[in-house]
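Chapter summary example.
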Amino acid sequence: MIAGVFGVNLCYNIANDTTQMTNKLPQRTSLILVYITSLLYSFSSSLPVYVNSSFIAKVISVEKAVGIIFAISAAVSVCLTLFLPYILKRFGCYKTIISIIALEVLLFVGMATLKSPIAIIIVFILNQSFLSILAICLSIFLENFSENSETGGIRGIFLTTINTAVIIGPFLAGMMIGNGGFGKVYLAAAIFMLAAYIIMSMNFKNYKDPLYKTLSLRETFGIVVKSHDIHAIVCVHFLLNFFFTIMVIYTPIYLNVYMGIPMNKILSIVIPIALVPFALFEAVLGEIADKKLGEKEIMIAGFVIIVFFTAMLSFITNPSIIVWAIVLFLTRVGASAVEVMSETYFYKKINPNDIHLVSFLYVVRSGASILAPLIVVFILYFLDYRYIFLILSIIMILGIPYSFHFKDTR
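The structure predicted for these 410 residues follows.
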């Protein structure tokens, strides 16, 4: 249906000895540079990630409408993702990346300096949408420098690298808010993005794109439906992004408005502690999935942990920073396991030429980002804010049967 409405094709590349993406740098050096660029990108996006919802709530002065703004951002992201293959075919991945990075620098500066609510909302929507496209392009870069037998380790290191910034970013944002408000956070994000532009422009000018062909969204959907493994992992990605979207948007608001915890304490203490599992476990779990257990067992355990501790959040009435940090930490223990296993499994099942499947995956993830806040907006008309977490845990139960259908790749 989407293909019929938009008339859009997703693309993939046909890579052989003469059309493979090439770069004059050695593979290991290229990997390191992609890691560094991704780290800078992650710092840029993670500095304001737990600030965004509170910032938008302040701009529009209607708390329940915050989710709608985020849903619109995700919808724009879906449209851009659908047209991304045409952009890559016309301009190439390198030019696309540095153009988006340059645009993001300007958008972050706009977030820091604009005064008009309408202008801020428009800039915010564009900012969030293009950050998603940049993530896809960086993922494509990484996949082209990965050997299948090392996918778990490479993806684990990649996720650990970016999640290190995800942990440190909110901590830095908390200190900035304590000393000057939201503006400094967005300006700092612009600086990190500028550094990413410098790394990319200095090292990947000779990056050669392959020949791109197009595959319709309907055909891609048919491939996903016919492949039980791909279908299952896409559903897991949807659920995980649904979880992340709700937690990122609504946890800071709940802790600040309903628990009475100061925002600078949320950002500098609670959130960094909660996110430690992403840096602590993902590289190790990726290696384990490559050599020992396999993805299925770890993913099932991850979903069980998510379900139990997310439900617990609805029944915590103590505004203690330590209590909230510990329980949120435990939810992320489960989420980190599911994240690295889902990433590892997906990229073991595809090849560098399957960009149509990568694009489809990101469309589905953006779909979760659209649906999640809209569901919460609906929930808030009937239930107290705290029950968001209980309903989320019930939805996440769906991930357990999907995980049982996986066939370990080790």
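To summarize the output: Confidence is low (pLDDT under 50) at residues 1-22.
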